[in-house]
Design a protein that fits this description.
The chain has about 180 residues and is mainly β. It contains 1 helix and 12 strands, in the order E-E-E-E-E-E-E-E-E-E-E-H-E.
Length: about 180
């Protein structure tokens, strides 16, 4: 039992984290924009200080500056880590992105990360992820043509190999109210 990532002034902090065999990763919203993460060993020793998750994305990526809504998942089936945040870029043809980072190994500190930016037709608010053998599934709230809920199935197999990945999008009918 140890203190996690301290409050940094972002409201709401949207604190999110997960535990793997040897690591704990926690993400929170950062003041201004985006999310930060911090990594500990399971004894409470800091292995990676607070870092903006967007710095894992290559230069020119839409994910270099995110909008928060952090998610961390440990994929037990593959011994990998998934971190995610949202991004919105009004000057682009697609107004939103799911920014997904997959660790290249079970070691999130030294193993490196692959970056994926999946375009969405509207800002993908309040994402929630699930790990399944065939895909990473994501549920989001979208405002266009909305309000609607959408689900995305991300190509987990290709993402775990660092290959270009596609997705399928499913949406609900617009709900009254």
């Amino acid at each position: 039992n140890f203190d996690g990532h301290g409050f940094n002034g972002a409201f709401p902090p949207d604190t999110n984290g997960d535990v793997g065999p040897r690591h704990y990763i926690q993400m929170i919203n950062a003041p201004g924009a985006g999310s930060t993460f911090k990594i500990w060993d399971k004894q409470g020793g800091v292995l990676a200080n607070e870092t903006a998750v967007g710095t894992l994305a290559p230069l020119g990526s839409k994910c270099r500056v995110g909008n928060g809504d952090p998610v961390v998942l440990y994929d037990r089936l593959a011994n990998r880590w998934l971190m995610s945040e949202t991004a919105a870029h009004p000057g682009t043809p697609t107004p939103g992105f799911l920014c997904v980072y997959i660790s290249k190994s079970g070691n999130p500190v030294t193993g490196g990360w692959w970056t994926y930016e999946f375009p969405t037709p509207s800002f993908p608010d309040y994402p929630h992820y699930a790990v399944w053998p065939d895909a990473y599934y994501v549920g989001v709230n979208e405002a266009v043509p909305g309000p609607i809920s959408s689900a995305y199935a991300l190509d987990r197999k290709k993402m775990l190999q660092g290959q270009p990945a596609t997705f399928n999008r499913f949406q609900t009918d617009q709900l009254p109210g």
